[in-house]
Amino acid sequence: MTPSVSAHPPKTNIHRSCIQCCMAQTCNINSRGKRARFIYGILMVALGIALGVFWAWPDGGVWKWVVSIACVAGGAFGLYEARAGWCVVRAMGFKTPM
Prior knowledge:
The protein is mainly alpha-helical. Helix content is 66%, strand content 0%. The protein has a domain at 28-91.
């Protein structure tokens, strides 16, 4: 009898536990940090939308759209950090002044 070979490797919790250990999403910023992330999130989303409408839309071009979408994505992530009270840089172990 030959052993059965699965197409998928067995599921382990090693990868998930490593991520949870290294970058656990627990509240690691105070109200000042949340406010700062909220403000730059709003500004980045607004900047990305303005760049898309007034800069990338009329002329086109891939890089103009990439910059506009990156601004919106970065701002959305800042809003997520503000809402969750979690900073990815602090979760990686860096000390931030705020």
